Amino acid sequence: MKTIQKLFLIFLMFCSLPSLGQQATEVKVSGKVLDNTTQQPLEYAGVTLLSLTGNKILKTTVTDKKGEFTLVTNPGQYHLKIEFISYKPTLLENKQIKEDTNLGNIGLQENVKLLKSVNVIGEKSTVELNLDKKVFNVGKDLISKGGSANDILNNVPSVNVDANGGVSLRGNGSVRVLINGKPSMLTANNGLEQIPASNIEKVEVITNPSARYEAQGGGGIINIILKKNTIGGLNGSVQAGLGDPVNYHGNLNLSYKTEKFNLFSNVGGRSRDFYASEKRFQTTTKNGLTNILNQQNKQRRNDDTYNIYVGGDYYINPKNTLTGSFYHSTLFNRDTTNFGYSYYNGGNTLDSAVTRFENYREPQRYNQLELNYVKTFDNKDQKWTTNLQYDFWNDDENQDISQAKNFPLPKMISRLTSRNIESSDDIYIQSDFVTAFSKDSRFEAGIRTDLRAIRSDYWAKADEVLLAKYNNKLKYDENLYSAYMQYGNKINKFSYLLGLRAELSHIGISDRAGTFDQDKKYLNLFPTVHLTYKLPESAEFQLSYSRRINRPQFWQLNPFSGLSDIRNLTVGNPDLDPTYTNSFEFSMIKRLGKLNINPSIYYKHTTNYFQFVIEQTPDGYFVSTPVNLDFEDRYGFELSSSYNPFGWWRLSWDFNYYKFKQQGAYDGKNYGAKDQTWFTRIGSKMKFPKNLSIESSLNYIGKKQDIQSINKAQYRADIAVSKDLFKDKMSFTLGVINVFDSMVDKRVTNTDTYYLESESRRFGRLVSATIVYRFNRKKDDKDRLPDE
């Protein structure tokens, strides 16, 4: 812990600098900066306190989201200068400051001459920082246009999506992904590929959630917010594009608002091809003999997706609103995979060669019905919301696999067919009440029920003969009941939010053959604490704690797996228990003129931690299974920052470094790992005359070792160019993802009896072109979000 202690002390010394030298006689100068024409607040406007002689800079700060600022200084007479990109600077001269002074509203006038050459009028900040979450606004993200939710997440700081669609936060895979603040089956089994990037308004990253959020997700919560338009009258946009490899996509967004109704809709479709590949090299030693296997897999994956999202608000009266919506997604997944196996004996001489060809088909349909009621009161800080959501989905997985021996003599070995029909019914009910006892206090309470029933009917045949081992039906039921309350208040510069959540879990999993029948119930309490101390000159300290749970997901419990590659299987563990995490975080938010920084130090202690273990079968094949280990300790440092060196250029840098230790035993064997790693993302966005924009990013993930394997480092570079046409009614974007074709997942596992080395590519270089046309809607028009 010495390293983290040193970081913590340096962090405290750095953060305390703004307050050094303050005296008891200091006074506050405050005000609010607005656009002189629209009266809209201007965030990140620069405010400078100058001396009367020589205009020496004494103090600087920037405005917050409300356009407000506060400076602390000694009593005296000063000049005050206010500046903002593409606005004329304003100088308030000879201001006599004897006591706390509020200068009121300060209007800035647009610099028309400047606007003719550089169009950068008050663009919304890409990142917003709140008490218990970070919000990433992705509406202007050029790189992800024409892509999916996975492409969006891969450009969000602290978040990574691996080759199999697995999402991690700060390198931690036990993260909960929500849609509009609620659970969804679209977040499982790489279902996020079905959500078009054009449907997403913003992404919330919640590293240490408060009690209002479900306790699931030891690594935190990622909340994807979908768009709901709210501009008056009839308006909308049309988007279309194409790419290489095949990426045809189209999207129609319409909304119509009157005094009593607000109707919104989004209809889209997409057809994409992916070309993936994998190389595996393994040596096994048995009875003193060594055998070698060289394996090469090549896959072509085709996904056709259709989405429709329709809904509306009914304003019953000024204090009662009813909202209903329906979301449907259909995915047709068609894959073909060639497997090639070359076996060598100890003398490195080819012994045999086998090929295996898989034809995979999977139609998947997802439906979601939602009804939401919001009631407000005379007290503007009081609100009651109730939400009902029903999800029902099904998919039909079909495999047709043929295997042949090519060497030493050609021979057809077998034909394998399988089918897995899965379906789920999910009901979600939540009701929350918020009120305020005073100007700065806030009380919140709510109840919630999650009911999920998944059924999986599976069979497999070898040469038309039913395999009894794989003829089974899985039944999974997950019933969660929870309640919470939290209270927050503000005392001068100090704010706090204290919460407690209780969750009752009842999870049952069984099969038709009776090989297992697990039924588990547990009641848990989850306290949360969030403390904030606000310093002068736009600086805040945040200290938070939360207790979290990570319940195994259905796919981690399901012991039936696809038979694509029987030599390398991944199967679930029906007896997997939940993990529990105590999470601590200390962070700061600081604005230094054009530079915004958010450093954080965090620590997580997880008990009953689960990790995948690779075991070798008597046939020399390998099976990967999740098991419970004793614990994991993880601590690290994260820095999120943005810098505007010029009005037309925005830079961002995100860096995360962490250490971890994993320890436990399974099946009589001890497993453990101790390592450190880091990852970073550098982003750039430049806006030039004639409405031309260029956005680029570079992502790097360092090498990491777990309990059995070493994951090699990897990096990815993306770039996009955008041009606005016809007075911003039309935009054209050209983007390239994975410019250098460098997204390669390399892993090495080395034990006393075998050595495994793999190299896999989920996709290569992706090029896409997208065009958007808007009618009765401006490029910067805001969308209504579920909580508004």
Automatic annotation (TrEMBL):
Source species, domain of life: Bacteria
Outer membrane protein beta-barrel domain boundaries: 375-773
Localization of this protein: Cell outer membrane
A Pfam match: Plug
Membrane topology: Multi-pass membrane protein
Keyword Transmembrane helix recorded: no
Main localization of the protein described in the UniProt heading: membrane
UniProt entry keywords in alphabetical sequence: Cell outer membrane, Membrane, Receptor, Signal, Transmembrane, Transmembrane beta strand, Transport
Membership in a protein family: Belongs to the TonB-dependent receptor family.
PANTHER family found in the cross-reference section: PLUG DOMAIN-CONTAINING PROTEIN, TONB-DEPENDENT RECEPTOR-LIKE BETA-BARREL DOMAIN-CONTAINING PROTEIN
Protein name in the entry: Outer membrane receptor proteins, mostly Fe transport
